[in-house]
Fold these 2 entries.
Entry 1:
Amino acid sequence: MRVLLALLVSTLIVWPSSAEEIVLPAQKWPFQGPLGLYDKAELQRGFQVYREVCAACHSLDLLSYRNLREIGLSEAAVKAIATSVQVTDGPNEQGEIFERPGLPTDRFKAPFPNAQAARVANNGALPPDLSLMAKARFNGTDYIYALLIGYTEPPAGMTMNEGLFFNRYFPGQQIAMPQPLAEGMVEYSDGTEASVDRMARDVAAFLTWAAEPNQDARKRLGLSVVLALGIIAALFYLVKRRIWSDLH
Ligand code: HEC
């Protein structure tokens, strides 16, 4: 028993090595909390950032173009986005593989045909698929935002490996992704000013939706279930009072 206790105490003392822990600045998001819902205008801006910047290197394999209807894009807009890419299809009746314009039902087209090609274009590093990134990292939304604004000069005395960039929120602080965002890089169709902060926030929100598109529906359902249970509980209480009223 005493040995066990000593072991427990010593792990508690040794375990949280907080000295090198990276602290993410906690952000506020419209979709936080049990009642928070996605802001569609923000998601649309985020998609624009993904499409014009991140999509040069990162795939988004789990999304189809038609999913963009869910963030409020019109059918015509979705069609235009889909047809702007050429996808490989086939075989046709002649047994040939062919190229055709994309359809709303197609998955998002990846920037590279395979992982090797992606590595060759990125100095040997593989840009990961972003479909589930917001869930794959701890505090994913905050992390993606922080990563995009986390580029600075390396601290004095730090030797950087070749081809890597200093980012204070990336584990190890040396990342193979060059700083992707620069002031005014996209021209938002809703007229919002495209600061680095704004773009980082919007694309982090968009990638959160991509990883969890059903979150709004789940919250709405949860709310109506809680309300319904509340009403049922109140009715039961009234019935109980009625039934027992003669016996008091
Ligand atoms: C020029 C290519 C390029 C562009 C453009 C680019 N990235 Fe990356 N990204 C990379 C590479 C390469 C890696 C892998 C980095 C590593 O493992 O060191 C990466 C990694 C990441 C990661 C994963 C970090 C982790 O914890 O593993 C995220 C998230 C990310 N990028 C988001 C974005 C977003 C959002 C955009 C658009 C604003 C973007 N990237 C634009 C090349 C790019």
Entry 2:
Amino acid sequence: MKFTPVFIFFVGAQLLCFTEPWASAVSLSVAGDDLALEMREEGMIKSVEVHQPSAPKVEILTPHENETVTWGIQVRYAIAVVDAVDGSSKYGEIAATECLLEIEYLPATAATDVKAIVGKAASTPESPGLSRMKTSTCFGCHADKIKLAGPSFAEIAQRYGNQTGSSGLLGKRIIEGSSGVWGTSEMPSHPEITTEAAEQIATYILEQGAKKNSWIYPGFEGTFRIIDKPAPGAKGVYRLTASYTSKAQRRGQHSVVLKVD
Ligand code: HEC
């Protein structure tokens, strides 16, 4: 193997790598989401530009950041998504089930705790099970905490949560379909889902369903209910995170925090 010495220089925002200082150079520059690669060789300049698609723009239109809400009330929400390639939610170009609102209630014991929670930005990566489920038909029949045609994630978690091997069993049912377990309605089979993905989905359903103060809502608009005041003098915040992952696998998200009083 031939060892080639490499000389690296920074010139402004550019990184220059020379295999031989006098002969050829490769420069790499990053502008926004785009990556440009330029090769210079013996006086010739060859440029290669690699354009990475930009992340979709996701915006929670209502409610607004820092709004104060009252215990027990219904809150309306609306989300807009715009992606350079996939299109805009305004024109019905984005599937409603692929836009998700994650809602989390974070209790605080004092006003200073509220401040600390507000300061912490939510940026947890999406679980692979949830990503797979969004692009399937699941949310047409299942919701996180409410029973639709199929049982809620909470009911499923309550029934199977403590059993070993439950994600394997549920993964199998997701692929093969299910009937007679919850009532008279049947779940169709999903042969297009791999065993690995089905188990990731089942794991996600069991985890999300067991979370008490966390809710997942697919769609661009709807309402959710603020919990009843848990104790006299209780304080807390609601963190709303809307997200959309484009067909090019770029994720856009937006969070707002509401104070409950
Ligand atoms: C047409 C409606 C419908 C769709 C679409 C649907 N389900 Fe279901 N699902 C049901 C019904 C109804 C049941 C209850 C079946 C029964 O009683 O055995 C169910 C049951 C389940 C169960 C529990 C199974 C058990 O044996 O206890 C899981 C887990 C589940 N669904 C996940 C999913 C996932 C993941 C998707 C998307 C890939 C999905 N479902 C799509 C209607 C649906």
